[in-house]
From TrEMBL, chains A, B:
Keyword Transmembrane helix on entry: yes
Domain CSC1/OSCA1-like N-terminal transmembrane, first and last residues per copy: 9-179
Domain CSC1/OSCA1-like cytosolic: 200-362
Residue stretches making up the CSC1/OSCA1-like 7TM region domain: 373-645
Lineage: Eukaryota, Viridiplantae, Streptophyta, Embryophyta, Tracheophyta
GO function term, MF aspect, one: calcium-activated cation channel activity
Chain spans, region Disordered: 727-757
Topology of this chain in the membrane: Multi-pass membrane protein
Superkingdom: Eukaryota
Protein name: Uncharacterized protein
Pfam families named in the record: PHM7_cyt, RSN1_7TM, RSN1_TM
Keyword Transmembrane tagged: yes
C-alpha cells in the first residue's frame, strides 16, 4: 500500500512529464515547418496560415521570442471558440465528444467538494486505524485514514456513506438527464439546420430478392413505383467493386514509390535509382526503379480500366442492394421506418448513411449469414475477453532467453551479457502483451466489420462496446481481483453471487492508490502526450522529405487523424467508473479524476479545433451508448458498495442499497424512452418542415440531377478511395437556416444548460 | 418415492374420473335444456339448433337412446372441421391457440418414441440400482431403473443422454421453426383475406400535447393535415366516459333485479315482493321491491342522461388521445410505424386495436406516469412471486382452531368435536392458499391493467407472461426444491450459481413420480372437467329460472366463456417444460405428456367450435410469446441437465452441453428476426394491395361514413357496455378474397405443413 509520500512522488513525476510534453508542444507548434502537423485542420479548411497568423515570416524556425513566453496561451484560445462555431468548424460529433469530458467534470467536481466536506471528516474521525492493533499493521497508510477502511466494523457511520452514495447517484442521474436532453436538442437543431444532403432523401435497401425475369435495378424500380407511388424518385444500384478498389489502392501505393524515386533522381541526377522486383524491393533482380514503376503502373492502369468496364457491364457485379431516393424527405423518412413486405428478411430499408460513411463491402450480406456472423463474433468476443491470456502466455513461454539461444545461436554472446540479459528477460514477456493490446482495437474493429454493419459510424460504436467490455473485465476487475479474466470467471462461477461482489467490494479500498497512479500515468501524462502528436510529427517530416513534390503532395502527407471514438470513449468510461466506485469509499481519488476531465477537455478541444479531421458526421449518434455505459458504471459501483458494506458488519443496509441499482436502471429506461428515438428515428414533422421550406425557397430544384451521382462507389469517383468528394459537391446556397426551436429546447430549464448556444 | 403400483393406481383413478366427466358431459349435452350451455357458440352465430340438429323434438330431456350409445362421437366431430372453416368459425386466435397443443403433440410424440427406443434400454442396463448397496436403499423404485439414476457414476453412457438431448433440442427447434413459419403464413393470409374493418384504416394517437389556443380535436386535425396531407381523413376524440360507464353498469345491474322481482310477482301475483334499501337488500327499511327499483332506475336514467350530455359538451371530458383514420390502409400503416415529432413522448401512434378490443380507461395515461406504473408493477410482481407466502402464512396463523375459539366462542361446542376439528385443522390452512391461487390471475390482470396497456389482447399477453413467471418459480422450482420461493431465492443468492443448478438438477429425477401424478390430476382430469362446464351449467340454469323473460334475456344468460389465454397458456408451458426437462432423464414421464397434449387438443377443439365466444381477434398476435416461452423452457431444461450430469461424475461434459443453450438462444433470435415483425409491423406492400383492390372494386366507397361511429366509446353505443356491436356493422359484400399467397407460403416446404389448409 502506497503512502502519501509515494503518491506525492508519483504525482510530481507525472506532473513534470506532463509539463515537459506541454512545453515541447508549445515550442514545436510555433515552428512554421511543423505547422501542418499541429494545425492540419486549418489547411484542410483552406485557411492556410496557423491561427495566430503572424508567424509565416520566417520559413522554418520561429525566432520571435515573445511568442515563447506565452507558451500556454493555446489553452484559453482552445476554450475561446463558442460552441455553435465549434459545431460548424469541427462537426457535431466532435463537439459532442468533448462534452463527455465536460460531463465528467460537471458530475465529479460537485461530488468531490461534497465528499471532502462530509465523507473525509467522517472517515478521519473513524479512528479504527489509530488503535494500537491496527497501528502495528503496516499495510495501512494515511490515505486509508480518510477512506472507508477507517470506520469501525458495524458502525452507524456507514449510513453517512449510504446517504452520500444516494446523493452522488442522484446528482449523476440528474446531470446525465440534463446532458441527454441538451444533446438531443443539439442533434435536432443540427439536423434541422443542415443543408440539403443526399442522405436526407435516400434510403438504403438491402436484401433485394432475386427475380427470374428482371434485373436487380428493374426489380427495385418496379417495387418502389408500386409501393411508394407518390414519393419514389430514383435509385442507384451498388456494384461489387471490391476488386477494383484493391487495384486502385495498389496503384496509389506504386505511384508513391514512383514519386519517391523520381524525387531521388531529381536531387541527384548523376545516378538513376534502382530497385529489386521481388519482395519489398529487397529480393529479386535489380532494375531501373523509375522505368520499372512506370511500366508496372501502366499495367495496372490497363487492368483497372478493364475491371472498371467489367464491373459496370456485368450484371452479376450488381449486388442485391441499392440506394433508393425519394422526392421528399417525408417519403424517405416513411420508407426508412416502415416494413415493406410481409417477409422481414427481404427489402430491408434503413436510413442511408452519409456517402463517405458507407462501408461498401458490407452491403450485400444475406440475412442468415448476417445472423450467423453475429453469433460467431459474440462467441469470439467472449473467448477474446476471457481467454486472451492463453495464447499470450504461450508466446511468452516461447520468447525467453533459452528459446532465443536455440533458434539464433549466433546471438548467444550478446544476450549472455548480464545487462542485456536482464533487459531481455524483463522486456520480452511484456512485449507480446503490449503488442496484443496495441492491436486489440483493430481486432475489435475487424470483428465489428465481420458482423456486417453498413456504416463507419456504427462500426465505431460497435467496437467501442466491445472495447468497453474488455476494459471493464480485464483492466478494472483484473486490477481489483488481480488475476486473469479466466480466473475471475471461475471465481464468479464457483462463488455464490453475493460472495463475488463481497470479494470485489472489500478489495476495492486497497486498490485506491494503484488507480490514483494509473490515472496520473494514463490520464495526465497520456493526454499531454496526445497533444504532442509525436508519431504524426515524425511521419510528416519523413514523407515531406522523400515524397512531397507539389503543394498537393504536402497536403496528402498531412495526417490530421481523428477522434478515435472506438478506443478513446471506453477509456473515458473507465474514469467515470473509477470515480463512481471510489466516490463513497476513498474520496481522495476524486480530485485526480476531476483534474483528468478538465485537462482532457482542454486538450481535446484544442485538437478538434486545430488538428483532427472527422471521417464522417453521424450527428452525435453515439450519445445513447455513452449514456448507457455511464449508467452501467454507476450500477456496478452501487453493487460493489453493497458488497463492501456487507463485509463491514452492515448487512442490514443491503435492503436500503438494493433500491439504488433498481431505480438507476429504471431511470435509464425512462431516459431511453424519452430521448433515444431522436437518435435512431426520423420524425415526420421535421421532414415535412424542411420539405415545405425547400419547396418555397427553390421551387425549381431538380433533385434528380442533384442525387445523380451521390451514392456511387468512391472508386468510380476519380479513383480516390475514401475521399469525401461528394460532400464537397454541396450547393453553396444553402436552405434557409431554420431558427425553429424544438419542443425540448423551448422549455426554460434547458436554456440554462445551452446558454452558450 | 412412488412405485410403479402407486403410479398405476393414480393413473387408474384419474382415468376413471376423466371418464366420469366425459360420460357426464356426453349425457348432459344431449339434453335440449342444456343446449345453450354446451353449444352457445351456435346460438351466437344465429344457427339455433345444436349441431346434431335432430334433438329439438323433446323440449327438455333427450329420450332418443341411440344417441347415448355413441356418447363419444363428439370427438371425431370436433376433429372433423377443416382448419380454414375453423378459422372462419372461431377466429384465428382460437384456431392458433389449439395449435399449441398440437405443437406439443408433434414435438413430444417422436421424442417419446425415440426415448423409449434408445434411452430406456440404456438406462435399464445401467444396473447401478441392482447392486446390493443400492438395493438396500429403499428410495428407489422400478421407475428409477429406467431413469438416468440407474447409470453408474462417471459412466460413458452419459454421452448417449447428451446426444439424445441434442437430438431432442434440435427436433424441438425444428418443430418450433416450422410452426412459427406456418402460423406467420396463416396470420398473413388471414389479414390479407379479411374484410374491410375500421381498424385497418385507423391509428391510435396518444399523448396529444395540450395547446393553449386550440381544442384537442382541432389540434389533432391541424397536426395531421400538415404532416399527413395526402392521407389524413378524419379522427374521433376519446371521451373520459368512465363515470358514465359505471352509471350504465349500475343501471344494468338494477334492471336485472327489477326483472327478477317482476318475474317473481308474475309467478305469484298474490304477494308483492319486498326488499330492503340497505346493504345488499339485507339491512335497511323494507319497501316494495318493484316500486323501489322502478324509482331507482328512473333516477339513474336521469343521472345517465345528464352525465351523457355533460361528457359530450365539457371540453375537459376529452382526453388527449384519439383514433385517427386515413384514406388508405397505406396511410395508416405509415402513420402507425413512424415517429411523428422529435419529442418521442407526444403524438405517439400505434395501430388501433379492434373497437371491441380497446381498453378505454387506459388511453390517457401521461408518459411519466406510465413509466412509473411499470416500475411499480415490476417491483410488485417480484414481491408477489417471491414473498406471496408471507401474508398467506399470516392468515393461516390466524385461521386456526384457537383463533376461531377466541373470536367466535359460541362455535366452541361444534369445532371441539374430533371429526370437525380435524376437518377444520386440515382444511383451513389450505383455504387461504387456495383462495389466493384462485384470485391470482385476476391480480395479475389488474396489475397489467395498471401498467396501462390499451388493448384487451395485450393485457392478456402481458398477464400470461406474469403468470408464467409465477408458475415457473412457484410450481416448477417450488416442487423440485420443495421450499417457498423466498427460500429458493436465498439459496440462489447464497449458493454459487453452478451449485444452484447442480442442486436443482440432481433433485429432478426424484420428482418424476410427483410430476406424473400432477400431470394426471391437472392435465387429464382437469381438462376433462373443462368440457363439463359445471359452473356455467349451474349459473345458466339459475339465471334461466329467475331472470329470463324473453329470448333476448336467455341469450344474455348464456355465458359462453372464452379461451382464458392469460391463465391457460402458461399452464401449457409448464407441460412443455416438464417434457423437455424429463425427456433425457426420466423418459417414462413423456407418454403422460403426449396423452395430455392429444386429449387437450381434442377437448379444446370441441370447445372453440361449440362453446367459446372470442372477446377479440388479435390475429394470433400471441404466437411470439408462446414461441419464446417454449424456448425458455427448453433452455432451462438444458441448463438443468448440465447441472445434473455434473453431479454424476461427468464434469467434462459441461463444455459440450454449454453450446446447447447458446445455440438455442441464437435460434430464438434468428426466428425472432425472421418472423416476429409479421406480428408487430404492417407491411406496406400488403396494405397497398388491399387498397388497390378496394379502389378497383368499390370506387365510390364513402369511407368517412363507414368510419363515422367506429371508435365511439361503447357506452354511447346503445348503452350496452362491452358488446361488440360495431363489428356487426360490417358490410355483407366483402372485398374480393385475395387468393394471393405470401412469399413465405409460396415456398415448397411450407406446403407440406399446411396441407390441411
Amino acid at each position: 500500500m502506497a503512502t502519501v509520500a509515494d503518491i506525492s512522488l508519483s504525482a510530481a513525476i507525472n506532473l513534470l512529464s506532463s509539463l515537459a510534453f506541454l512545453l515541447a508542444f508549445a515550442i514545436l507548434r510555433l515552428q512554421p515547418f511543423n505547422d501542418r502537423v499541429y494545425f492540419p485542420k486549418w489547411y484542410l479548411k483552406g485557411v492556410r496560415g496557423s491561427p495566430t497568423g503572424s508567424n509565416v515570416v520566417k520559413k522554418f524556425v520561429n525566432l520571435d521570442f515573445r511568442t515563447y513566453i506565452r507558451f500556454l496561451n493555446w489553452m484559453p484560445a482552445a476554450l475561446h471558440m463558442p460552441e455553435p462555431e465549434l459545431i460548424d468548424h469541427a462537426g457535431l460529433d466532435s463537439a459532442v465528444y468533448i462534452r463527455i469530458y465536460l460531463l465528467g467534470f460537471k458530475i465529479f467536481a460537485p461530488i468531490t467538494v461534497l465528499a471532502f466536506m462530509v465523507l473525509v471528516p467522517v472517515n478521519w474521525t473513524g479512528k479504527t486505524l489509530e488503535t494500537p492493533r491496527a497501528a502495528k499493521d503496516l499495510t495501512f497508510s494515511n490515505i486509508d485514514k480518510i477512506s472507508v477502511s477507517n470506520i469501525p466494523f458495524g458502525s452507524n457511520k456507514f449510513w453517512v456513506h449510504i446517504g452520500m452514495s444516494y446523493i452522488f447517484s442522484f446528482w449523476t442521474c440528474y446531470s446525465l438527464y440534463k446532458e441527454y436532453k441538451n444533446i438531443t436538442g443539439m442533434r435536432l437543431r443540427f439536423l434541422a439546420s443542415e443543408r440539403r444532403r443526399p442522405d436526407q432523401f435516400t434510403v438504403l435497401v438491402r436484401n433485394v430478392p432475386p427475380d427470374p425475369d428482371e434485373s436487380v435495378s428493374e426489380h427495385i424500380e418496379h417495387f418502389f413505383y408500386v409501393n411508394h407511388p407518390d414519393h419514389y424518385l430514383m435509385h442507384q444500384v451498388v456494384y461489387n467493386a471490391n476488386k477494383l478498389a484493391s487495384i486502385v489502392a495498389q496503384k496509389k501505393n506504386l505511384i508513391n514509390w514512383y514519386v519517391y524515386y523520381q524525387n531521388k533522381f531529381e536531387r541527384d541526377p548523376s545516378t538513376r535509382p534502382t530497385t529489386r522486383t521481388g519482395f519489398m524491393g529487397i529480393l529479386g533482380t535489380k532494375v531501373d526503379a523509375i522505368d520499372y514503376y512506370t511500366s508496372v503502373i501502366d499495367d495496372l492502369s490497363k487492368q483497372e480500366a478493364a475491371e472498371r468496364e467489367n464491373v459496370v457491364k456485368d450484371p452479376n457485379a450488381v449486388v442485391p442492394a441499392a440506394f433508393v431516393s425519394f422526392k421528399t424527405r417525408w417519403g424517405a423518412a416513411v420508407c426508412a421506418q416502415t416494413q415493406q413486405t410481409s417477409d422481414p428478411t427481404i427489402w430491408l430499408t434503413e436510413w442511408a448513411p452519409e456517402p463517405r460513411d458507407v462501408v461498401w463491402e458490407n452491403l450485400a450480406i444475406p440475412y442468415f449469414e448476417l445472423n450467423f456472423r453475429r453469433l460467431l463474433m459474440s462467441v469470439s468476443l467472449f473467448f477474446l475477453t476471457f481467454f486472451f491470456m492463453i495464447p499470450i502466455a504461450f508466446v511468452q513461454s516461447l520468447a525467453n532467453i533459452e528459446a532465443i539461444k536455440k533458434v539464433f545461436p549466433f546471438l548467444m554472446p550478446i544476450i549472455e551479457k548480464p545487462s542485456i540479459k536482464s533487459f531481455v528477460q524483463g522486456f520480452l514477456p511484456g512485449l507480446a502483451l503490449k503488442i496484443f493490446l496495441m492491436f486489440l482495437p483493430r481486432f475489435l474493429m475487424t470483428m465489428s466489420k465481420v458482423e456486417g454493419f453498413t456504416s463507419l459510424s456504427s462500426l465505431d460504436r460497435r467496437s467501442a462496446s466491445k472495447y468497453y467490455l474488455f476494459i471493464l473485465i480485464n483492466v478494472f476487475l483484473g486490477s481489483v481481483i488481480t488475476g486473469t479474466a479466466f480466473q475471475q470467471l471461475q471465481q464468479f462461477i464457483d462463488l455464490p453471487s453475493t460472495e463475488f461482489t463481497k470479494t470485489v467490494g472489500s478489495t476495492i479500498p486497497m486498490k485506491a492508490t494503484f488507480f490514483i497512479t494509473y490515472i496520473m500515468v494514463d490520464g495526465w501524462s497520456g493526454i499531454a502526450g496526445e497533444i504532442l502528436r509525436l508519431s504524426s510529427l515524425i511521419t510528416f517530416h519523413l514523407k515531406n522529405t522523400f515524397l512531397v513534390k507539389t503543394e498537393q503532395d504536402r497536403e496528402n502527407a498531412m495526417n490530421p487523424g481523428s477522434l478515435e471514438f472506438a478506443t478513446s470513449e471506453p477509456r473515458i468510461q473507465l474514469y467515470f467508473m473509477l470515480g463512481h466506485v471510489y466516490a463513497p469509499i476513498t474520496p481522495i481519488l476524486l480530485p485526480f479524476i476531476v483534474v483528468f476531465f478538465a485537462f482532457a477537455y482542454m486538450i481535446f478541444r484544442h485538437q478538434i479545433i486545430n488538428v483532427y479531421n472527422q471521417q464522417y458526421e453521424s450527428g452525435a449518434a453515439f450519445w445513447p451508448d455513452v449514456h448507457r455505459r455511464v449508467i452501467m458504471g454507476l450500477v456496478i459501483s452501487q453493487i460493489l458498495l453493497m458488497g463492501l458494506l456487507s463485509t463491514r458488519g452492515s448487512e442490514n443496509t443491503t435492503l436500503v442499497l438494493i433500491a439504488q441499482p433498481i431505480l438507476t436502471i429504471w431511470f435509464h429506461r425512462y431516459c431511453k424512452g424519452l430521448f433515444e428515438s431522436a437518435f435512431v428515428k426520423f420524425p415526420l414533422e421535421d421532414a415535412m418542415v424542411k420539405d415545405t421550406l425547400e419547396r418555397a425557397v427553390e421551387p425549381k430544384l431538380n433533385l434528380r440531377v442533384y442525387l445523380q451521382n451521390a451514392y456511387v462507389h468512391p472508386v468510380f469517383n476519380g479513383g480516390e478511395f475514401e475521399k469525401p468528394e461528394i460532400i464537397d459537391d454541396e450547393e453553396d446556397n444553402p436552405l434557409i437556416q431554420t431558427k425553429r426551436t424544438t419542443h425540448l429546447s423551448s422549455k426554460p430549464e434547458s436554456d440554462n444548460e445551452t446558454g452558450s448556444y
